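Changelog note: in this version the structure field was regenerated for every chain. One regenerated record is shown below for reference.
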Amino acid sequence: MRRGAKDDKRFTGLTILAATTGFVLFLPPLLTVAKNAGTIAGVPAVAAYLFGAWLVMIALVALLVRRSG
């Protein structure tokens, strides 16, 4: 079944939003803040931040794939 042009534009917009979110999550200023934060339950905060941001990106892409059909 063919999606309409409106659905294609929305999917493209959501894809761009996910890519932009990923770009912002991994910017050096945010990583520097996490680097200076110490530890979280014995794990360095920068490692926890990186894995958390990675998990957010996986979830966003999974939602996009699921909604695309």
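Spot check on this record: The CA atoms of residues 38 and 45 lie 6 Å apart. Strands lie at 39-40, 43-44.
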